[in-house]
Fold Cytochrome c domain-containing protein.
Amino acid sequence: MKAKLLAAAALGSLLVSACAEQPQPPRPVPVKPPTQIDGVWYLDQNWTQDARQWYYNTTQGSQIMRYDWFMALQDPQTKEPFVKSVPRYGYTAGSPSKWNPDLLPLGFVKDTDPDKTEWIGMTCAACHTGDVRVNGKTLRVDGAVTTGDLYGFISGLSVAVHTTVTDNAAFEAFAAKVLGPTAIDTKKIALYNQLKAFDKSFATFVAQSTPDTPWGPMRTDAFGMIFNRVSVIDLNIPKNNRAPNAPVSYPYLWDAPHQPKVQWNGLLDNKNSFEALGRNAGEVLGVFGKIALKPPKDSGHYYYDSTVRGQNLVAMENQLRKLRSPVWPDSIAGNIDIVKAAAGQDLYKQNCESCHAVLPRDMTYTTAPITMVPLFNWAKPDDPSAVLAAFGMICAKGVDAAVAAKMITVNYAADPKMAVDALCRQSDTGAIAGVAMPPKLLGGTPLKNPDLAATLLSNAVIGAVLGDIAKNPELIGDLLLGDDAPAPWASNTWSDKKAASGSKKTLSTKPLVTAGAPATEDHKKLATILSGAAKTVATAKEADTTSTSKAEATAKAAESLATTIKTLLAYKARPLDGVWATAPYMHNGSVPNLYELMLPVAERSPTFKMGTIGIDPVKVGVDTRAADNNFVFDTSKPGNRNTGHEYGATLTDSQRWQLLEYLKTL
């Protein structure tokens, strides 16, 4: 094993020193018209049908429950197999293909452990593939927002399992499918005890995942769920649990691999292939991926065992780099008014483009520029001690208390709960307190106890990736190969990909680590936050004035920390290509359509119905009048505020309609 790690380290060194930027595919114009397959219209997003079916049906390491159990489970409401009820929670029904022989719902997949145990899990596609209905036709938008209700699904699954272990007839039907109709009683009893244990643990998970305010469809508290999964379940520390009360919309994925930062608050850097893999590995841990968080045994086993499928994640990221935003389907949704759109283009340049860059469809691009819009104005932005004191107040007593103390004023007034939670939440690090991932020899910082939840997650993710590399150094080869790899459904081994692409091309990918910027730099900064931001400031004030170098170092550290805090207490403004297919709007999905997003806050809907796949082609957004809506969004609830982004409030109504028409063309 140590030899494998050394080999991986050698490959990593080669990658750091020799890799070049990945070539980017062109953005063709015009696009092809929509294509109908099995009653669904697919838009031209630069993916073939094989490409999307592979993406829908490739495991990333998510493991919800035993596969045979899931397929045998009955829905107590419908008396049908539970697998057929998953679309009832807003997830898309699967389509027949060679990639989906069991006709699982879209984004649900079988995951097989090395010991051949089979599990049901979720893929990226479950949350990031959206069907939209326009004028009676259903369009599939790859990379868009699902209408899935994650909490509805897990709570419904828990009810089905509990019914099976408390109703003899339900269990007998379940056992007949799992064990066969002639199974002996001793095997049935063993199966019953196993399912009963799962029922208890899964019910606990659902209880710990219950928000105070329902998320509803199309949203989840992503950070809250991931933090709970790692700090509560994987570390087995129940007191770390926090109700996931900061829901956000599922972000759309086209252009995301090209953005320098990801997550709504830009928490994670996304400048190279390693950072992309880490971000995706963290997502797996949030959707039922498993990781054994135990102190490493020795230098030859310095990693965490996990179910993360690194090679598949790299192939998925490469596939997403080819995905393009959907063009407004005028043949289905109606023609764009060119006169209005032309006037709207000027309005966009005046009011929107400074934050939301335009990515021309007829040009190749290598990055998707973003703008981080600060949530707060700091009373003394140039005084690190004042910024750190304000941050301490925000974490200890909340945003309103910091405003009342005149430490901050609200700038971009959208609900700040997600960004604040991501930076302020602490967790007991339990058994892995003091463990550094990567090891200290490579620049890692040992976990403190307690420590920032984001730092704990970073530690887990890095350990999982190291574990994958240790067991399968071909993962390094996949990172090297990048876009030069042939289609993943044609070949799944590094040696095959390398042979197919040619050895001279194996270094044409983004570097594993950006030159001059250690991969752990932000990790270290964030780790410092809970090592005592206020204490750092106090130390700076009490430092020995005769020790100039020590005082300067302390001041520099405080200044760097303050800058990091100001940077991350912000929300990301990204390019808006394809924005017509991404309702509802704002980071928390609190505005139903683009027209309302241009209104003053007081004129926006305080409540609205959602859950349908239908879109309103006039106001461009959720069809709030659709009969199949199943959730009422209440903007008065915590985490649901629809305030902020009043950049269209000063426009006339005719100007809003002009701008709206232009937004359809992006």
Notes: Residues 350-371+573-663 form one domain.
